[in-house]
Write a structure and sequence with these properties.
Layout (H helix, E strand, L loop, with lengths): L1 H13 L9 H5 L13 H4 L9 E11 L8 E12 L2 H24 L4 E2 L7 E2 L6 H5 L11 H39 L33 E15 L4 E14 L3 E15 L5 E18 L2 E12 L2 E3 L4 E4 L2 E11 L2 E8 L10 E11 L2 E8 L2 E10 L2 E8 L6 E9 L1
Parallel strand pairs: 4-11
Antiparallel strand pairs: 1-2, 1-18, 2-5, 3-9, 5-6, 6-7, 7-8, 8-9, 8-10, 9-12, 10-11, 12-13, 13-14, 14-15, 15-16, 16-17, 17-18
């Protein structure tokens, strides 16, 4: 299984074909994931979700047929979340101090002209999922300025350092998890209502696979998480190469309330008729919030591109990604069923319409999940099966997605 996972991730990073949206599981639920976001797909939908379900996950997804018209992806994401016992006062005090520090840093960068508001400015804006090759080429195909080499080098250097550090942490976390699982398995065995010998119940931190026992939330525990996400798309149909690099930080308390943020780096390449490439670089910041007032209900809010840098291209074109605020609610009427509703771009910013997203996830027995959804007017469906520590995901996207099919693989350490 490890060789299969390694081969899958190599394909994700080096394939040159076209890929679909942002994670097989959330897309199978119609993109209604803002109030769920409890796995390594959280970066795009709600970074606060990284603080749910402590553990280490490595996820990848890709499209297997029928390119759609949105910016696509080879998606690879690493989630690392640990838990520590801490009293509420200390936790709130610490989160407040870090938030003030982050606010001061953001203000300083804004004053220096590095970060700018994601709303109310005159620069031309586009949606993050929208191809920009036509807009860029309107100013010509010849490079007129050298743009962003230091930004690119810094992004790559930071990504390499973070990956090296996270790989070491992941190995240690994996060793710990294996030891814990072995000790727990020796004490008890649980196969759920059906005998399912290749599925392993998560006793300490049940995920969406596991039937909950007693209370959902770990009492007196605080969660701290790091996420690393790469989305890369070499798309000849859209005449554009797209690379998104995201560092996510999140924290939660008793998995009742969680806060998170993304630092995004953008590296775009527009193909010219002469075979050259016009490069463009930029960055942005997202914020996310998740609240679970009762065990059966979750509320989510994500502000995407709330702070941003303009994307400067070599031919002088300047673009910026449009800010969007997404909100969602998820309900668990029974343990085996989750119902979700999202509204994306709720303020209709940039003249772009609001979109509605409906999703359902049914877990008839542990280790199997069935999904259906409505992505605005497009129907979606999906399924997952867990074998040992691996989760295999599948999604089918109809309507405007042109019957796109996606597959994904997650390894839980």
């Amino acid at each position: 299984m490890r060789k299969v996972l390694a081969s899958f991730l190599i394909l994700i990073f080096f394939a040159n074909c076209s890929f679909a949206l942002f994670g097989a599981r959330p897309m199978g639920m119609g993109g209604a994931f803002t109030a769920i976001a409890d796995d390594a797909n959280a970066a795009y939908f709600n970074p606060a979700g990284f603080a749910l379900n402590p553990g280490t996950d490595l996820t990848g997804s890709l499209l297997i047929n029928n390119r759609n018209e949105s910016i696509g992806d080879n998606l690879a994401s690493l989630k690392m979340c640990f838990e520590a016992e801490i009293d509420p006062f200390t936790y709130v005090l610490g989160v407040g101090a870090v938030s003030l520090l982050a606010l001061s840093g953001a203000k300083w960068l804004h004053d220096k002209g590095v970060l700018k508001k994601g709303w109310g400015r005159e620069v031309e804006k586009v949606q993050k999922e929208e191809p920009v090759s036509e807009k860029v080429l309107e100013k010509g195909e010849a490079p007129t300025v050298a743009v962003g080499p230091k930004i690119k080098e810094k992004i790559e250097e930071t990504a390499k350092e973070a990956l090296a550090a996270s790989t070491g942490a992941a190995k240690e976390a994996g060793k710990f998890a294996v030891g814990e699982f072995a000790r727990e398995s020796a004490r008890q065995a649980y196969w759920g209502p059906w005998h399912y010998p290749w599925y392993h119940y998560n006793y300490h931190h049940p995920t969406y696979w596991d039937y909950r026992e007693k209370e959902y939330s770990p009492q007196g525990q605080a969660q701290f998480a790091l996420g690393l996400t790469l989305i890369t798309d070499k798309n000849s149909l859209l005449n554009q190469d797209t690379n998104f690099y995201t560092l996510s930080l999140a924290t939660g308390y008793e998995e009742r309330v969680a806060l998170g943020g993304n630092i995004n780096g953008y590296d775009l390449g527009i193909k010219t008729s002469t075979g050259g490439t016009l490069k463009g670089y930029g960055a942005g910041i997202d914020l996310g919030l998740l609240i679970r007032p009762v065990d059966e209900v979750s509320l989510g809010l994500a502000a995407k591109e709330i702070l941003t840098t303009d994307i400067h291209f070599q031919n002088g074109t300047i673009l910026s990604y449009q800010m969007a605020v997404n909100a969602g609610i998820a309900i668990n009427p029974i343990d085996m069923l989750t119902l979700a509703f999202d509204m994306h771009n709720i303020f209709g910013q940039g003249g772009n319409p609001r979109t509605n997203h409906l999703g359902a996830e049914l877990r008839p027995f542990p280790g199997l999940a069935l999904r259906g959804g409505l992505y605005d007017q497009s129907k979606t469906a999906g399924a997952s099966i867990m074998i040992g520590s691996a989760i295999l995901d599948y999604a089918y996207l109809g309507g405007s997605f042109n019957r796109t099919q996606m597959i994904g693989l997650t390894w839980k350490f």
